[in-house]
Amino acid sequence: MSFVFTPPSIVGIPVVGSDQQFPVRRVYCVGRNYAAHAREMGFDPDREPPFFFCKPNDDASVVPVADGKGVSIPYPPLTSNYHYEAELVVAIGKGGANIPVEQAASHIHSYAVGLDMTRRDLQMKMREQGRPWEIGKAFDFSAPIAPLRTLADVGEINAGAIVLEVDGEVRQKSDITHLIWSVNEVIANLSTLFTLQPGDLIFTGTPEGVGAVKQGQAIKVSIERLPSLTVHIE
């Protein structure tokens, strides 16, 4: 088969302890999955069904970061309110549809620390107009991600501190136990909407404390048992 131009390459995420990389197929994100974050965004945190949005899966949006190293990303255009959102990311290793909650963990390949970078002013403008969020969420360099650690290596991650610092100052601090919808529940629910496949990434939501960053600042995100993620804003 020939193409009119060279197809883009598949993005690969490093896997700790392996020479192989995890090939990214799709990037799903869960909205408002911590109660305190829902409140700070002006919503009632009642346990309604989760909702999802997507980010591009190409190398313009997904930014893999090598273990123990940081990465620099540019401040995006057309925003003056550029926000960080620290998240636990789940990588799917076995596909399926209508996955029962009690079987969800068997579909997990690995976990990572991720950032859902957001042009908040553009997102809010689209929300107020009843329009899609893409320009606020799905832009270039919007999904930095640290190396993955496999389920076999770390076990299920259903608890553990999640902390984000900006220039050494703690801005977000919570625990994975505070997810409104647990990791396994997110997988089960998402699989009723889409047939999950190996290579899918799921950003599981961010805790309270989201806020703006400026050029020259550095973000560090840590989750227990996982490699940390450091991002410098150019």
Report on the architecture of this protein:
This protein is α+β, with helices and mostly antiparallel strands and 234 residues long. It is 15% helix and 32% strand. The protein has 5 helices and 18 strands. The chain has helices at residues 35-40, 120-128, 134-137, 151-154, 183-193; strands at residues 12-14, 21-23, 27-30, 52-55, 62-64, 70-73, 82-84, 86-92, 108-115, 118-119, 143-145, 149-150, 161-166, 169-175, 201-203, 211-212, 218-223, 229-233. Strands 4-3-15-8-9-12 form a 6-stranded mixed beta sheet. The chain has a 5-stranded mixed beta sheet with strand order 6-18-17-13-14, with no helix packed on it. A 3-stranded antiparallel beta sheet has the order 10-7-16. Strand 1 (12-14) and strand 2 (21-23) form a beta hairpin. The protein is globular, with a radius of gyration of 17 Å. The relative contact order is 0.27.
Keywords:
234 residues, 5 helices, globular
Instruction: Note the gap between the termini.
Output: 40 Å
**How many distinct beta strands?**
18
**Pattern of helices and strands:** EEEHEEEEEEEHHEEHEEHEEEE
In terms of per-residue confidence, which ranges show pLDDT below 50 for 5 or more consecutive residues?
none
Radius of gyration: 17 Å
Gross geometry? globular
Sheet-strand content, in percent, reads: 25-35%
Structural class: alpha+beta
